[in-house]
Amino acid sequence: MQSERQKERERERERERERERERERQRERDRERETERERQKKTERDRERDRERDIERERD
């Protein structure tokens, strides 16, 4: 009887560890997406700056 309860508690702890690992994986994916969004925004800002610079050159 005691052994059965111990096994159940151990299974529950293992499920909790797995949930925590999944949450950590999700946080990592979120960080990667955010990093990618920031990179894209920077790239777009750089392109815009280049376009403006080209326009200025054409005016000269």
From TrEMBL:
User: Which segments carry the region annotation Disordered?
Assistant: 1-60
Protein name per Swiss-Prot or TrEMBL = Uncharacterized protein
Protein's organism? Dreissena polymorpha (Zebra mussel)
The organism's taxonomic lineage, starting at the top: Eukaryota, Metazoa, Spiralia, Lophotrochozoa, Mollusca
